[in-house]
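Chapter summary example.
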Amino acid sequence: MAKNAHAKLDALAAQLERKLGDNLATFALYGPAVRHDTRERDRELTTLLILNDASPVALRPVEDEIAGWVKKGNPPPLIFAQRGWRGATDVFPIEIEDMREAHRILAGSDPFEGLTTTKEDLRRELEREVRGKLLRLRTEFAAVASNGKALGELLLDSAGAFFVLFRAVLRLVGHTPAQTPKSLVHETAEAAGLDASAFDWVLDKIVGHNVQALKAHDPVGDHYVEQIERLAQFIDTYDTTRAPGANQ
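The structure predicted for these 248 residues follows.
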């Protein structure tokens, strides 16, 4: 992450601490900017703000700071009340574990201390997310398959979301997620019985390699969608009672 981004985040953290006082439980950076596993332009400064009281009245002291942060082109902080954060482990296990893996605390305390998620909650959310994104992928694929350029854009645009889910798949089977996209794809493919070559075009494009432009109804697109379908089937039938750490 660039030095100026560090400075901007530290300045925002100081403003939030000053305005919120004891109401601020945690302010943290999470995601791609910490992980460094995506294209530079995709490294959004995604932040998490946890408050003891997250009511509309309690948020008013920092409305200007948050509005100013968004006007600069940054996504608004993901805001939780402390009680809601602690109660979200069964609803958002993918997001929580992804944040846990790649975060930097800017102010307040560690929000992950004592926080646990279960394998079955993870599998349930993972199936819902993969099936939902597969449904959208199929729908958009049908509309762009006859246009090679649009097809390539669809594969690239969808890959980031699926890579997040790949990390969750590796956690589900008891593995520590790989940090680079290539390793992530290959380890997920091995764990879930996928053909890793289906993602070669996307991986090469992400790292800036020269790749052949896709043509209408390119087999690259077909193969990509087919492997996401296979992933959904794997998650649907995965037995969490036999998974390493099943009781965690």
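To summarize the output: Residues 54 and 81 are 5 Å apart (CA to CA).
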